[in-house]
Amino acid sequence: SDIPLSQLDKAFIEGFEYYLTIDRKLKRSSISSALSTLQTIVRIAVKKGVLDFYPFLGYSYERPKGEPRSITKEELEHIIDLEIEWENYRIVRDLFVFSCFTGLAISDVRNLREENIVTEEGKLCIKGRRMKTKTPYRVQVLPPAWAIMERYRGKRAGFVFDVPTTDIILNGMHYIQRNIGMETPLTF
Predict the structure, then answer these.
(1) 123 - beta bridge partners?
(2) Cα–Cα distance, 78 to 84 (Å, whole number)
(3) Distance from the CA of 174 to the CA of which of 19, 63, 70, 81 falls in 20 to 30 A?
(4) Tell me: the pLDDT tens digits for 80-101?
(5) Contact of 45 with 51, CB cutoff 8 Å
């Protein structure tokens, strides 16, 4: 049942986690997601002055580490060779392949600017900071990645790529996965 925000305390959070674990029998990832959502709402309430204390202070919960997934060389070749009629899905495929050859996350690809493309020690590189962690990176640009960059450069002022919306990316990845016969979800 509902409770006023002012009554939300550490005991409630502990009870909520217990309820999700024992009564609802949720997996650790679902519990972590629910607690993270609650924590975000509480943080906003504190910031806006609705709550004058932060009940998550000193409270920690297990955040499971996801298993990194990877694709095989054969799957990557199928993706590269896949005939795609719709231009937006071709762009999604090309950005995914670019990401495979550079190791960049989609957020870093989306924010890749012309000034990030540099030549160091006679090699073409991409230099920047990860959007998520602000960690600096330097990646050598391999020929397949260079070909993709050249195909799309100049379509969005100052940026290397004009990245489609998140919905188009998700739908495009699902389309690619289905059309090459992959069982595991394809994400980047």
Answers:
(1) 120
(2) 12
(3) 63
(4) 999 999 999 999 999 999 999 9
(5) yes
pTM > 0.85: yes or no: no
Residue with tokens 């969005």: 156
Residues 6+ apart with CB under 8 A from 48: none
Q: Are 120 and 138 in contact (CB under 8 A)?
A: yes
By DSSP bridging, strand 136-140 and strand 117-120 are: unpaired
Helices and strands of the chain, counted as H and E runs? 7, 3
Residue 69 confidence (pLDDT) = 78
> In the chain, what is the straight-line distance between the N-terminal and C-terminal CA atoms, in Å?
38
DSSP-assigned beta bridge partners for residue 119? 124
Query: Which residue has tokens 């020929």?
Result: 143
